[in-house]
Amino acid sequence: MSHRINVAEIFEENLAYGDINQQTSFPSSLRTLEACQLCYLDDPVSPEALLALPDANEAYIAASNYRLYYINKNNQTCVLIYQGCSTLFDIFPQFYNSDKIKSATSRDIERIIQALQKPIHPLPVKNATDYHPRYIVNVSNCTVLHHAVLINGIQQVKSLLKYQPQLELKARYQIQPTGEILELTAKELADYLKHDEIAALLASLTETKEKNSSLIKANRHVIWFASSKDNTTIDTQNKAAKASKEVDEPCSEKSHPIGSGPAKECDFIPRDKALSTQM
């Protein structure tokens, strides 16, 4: 009897054991920003045949004898970027496949780039790593929520939001090949990638948090104002009571400093003694 694994439930269960707001670099988070295809071309191979094969503007095309080409139809680029036996070619359609074209995933592009960065054979061109579609990759400060947004994992995002992540945290991303640096919140990342469902969800939650924050601030102001008013009233009452006490008790030490020492409160001083003291 087989049991179906509920990945969403396992994901949620594990969230309780970690800090969902922890920020770290995640260099294996590459995601392509342009459509790209993986193709196989039978001999003979020519620039014209290479450029005519794919439907997308950019493609990697495998050919016989373990040759790998990068092509860009818009600028008519056609470059041999890799040659040599490698398991890299396993991700491409093969000569015996009826369909010689398939869409490239972000993982496929990442694998090709890694193979070019650490080649096991000499590369045909020095700048082979420069030939790739536009992609975004995390540089630093990535959170679990950022990564869920990046991979368009709507269910993961919903699970994370149950734990009230800090939506204001920003992660740093780099766009290649331009090298542009972006610092984005999870909501801003969703907008940039056009992950509309996630963007709407985060926007709604952000708006709710802002409203709650405004209400809390308003309530604090009302409480402070009321407290300040009460303190002012109490202070006024205390001053009035003190003034009344001074009027009711004229025989205090401060009011009658007679002779060498102060008269005791409400002492009777004979008239003749008072006159002799003045003389």
What's the gist of this structure?
The chain has 279 residues and is an alpha+beta fold.
Strand and helix map with partners:
Elements: H1 7-15, E1 31-32, E2 36-41, H2 47-52, E3 58-63, E4 67-72, E5 77-83, E6 101-103, H3 106-117, E7 135-140, H4 144-150, H5 154-161, E8 171-176, E9 180-184, H6 186-193, H7 196-248, H8 271-278
Parallel strand pairs: 2-3
Antiparallel strand pairs: 1-7, 2-6, 3-4, 4-5, 7-8, 8-9
Helix pairs in contact: 1-5, 4-5, 4-6, 6-7
Taken from the alpha-carbon principal axes, the silhouette is: elongated
Q: Catalogue the unreliable spans.
A: 251-259, 263-268, 273-279
Strand content: 15-25%
- How many beta strands in the DSSP annotation? 9
Helix content: 25-40%
Largest sheet: 5 strands, mixed
The termini sit apart by 121 Å
Helix/sheet category:
alpha+beta
